[in-house]
Amino acid sequence: RLIRGAIPFRMTVRRLEPTEWPTALNLRVAALTESPGAFGSTVVRERGLPLATWQARLTGNAWFAAFDAEIAVGLACGVHTETPDERELTGVWVAPSHRGTGLGDALVTSVRDWAALQGAHRLTLEVVRINESAIDLYTRHGFEVVGQTETPGHGLRENDIVMSLDLRRLARPAVRIERGPSAGTT
Length: 186
Known about the structure:
Blueprint: E1 11-15, H1 21-34, H2 43-48, H3 51-60, E2 62-68, E3 71-80, E4 86-94, H4 103-117, E5 122-127, H5 132-140, E6 144-148, E7 161-166
Parallel strand pairs: 4-5
Antiparallel strand pairs: 1-2, 2-3, 3-4, 5-7, 6-7
Helix pairs in contact: 1-3
């Protein structure tokens, strides 16, 4: 029996290093292939990005991957916004074979903790209105609906949902965020 939020021992979540861009690309392509309407990109666009763009994505932001043993099965990204005390949660996806295992919760928690450790006060996200399982996941983590998208873009349609989490309400995380195979801290 699985306890919500607890993942099986063979599964891990860790931050990807810039050199692990192929893992990020493969997960992104898998997500776009399996759930094309949930994300603001296409397989063709992602595969066409140059190596420097992929490395910059993983350098400037926090891309977390979920693994079952050595197989990458999930992704979530924490990105900087134009507002210094805000970060955005984006690109959350878990392979259908691993949904319900707690990996979605672990990925959201990883991005949340990263944002809090950076001193951010707010973590925001945008989600397609019809994605009820994602909305349930975010609500479980304390996100609240704060509005609707006003203009389509990034895979979203007008009136899809904007959610926010006030990180100041949370206890400061006492965690180390593991990075890459050599595991350092950030």
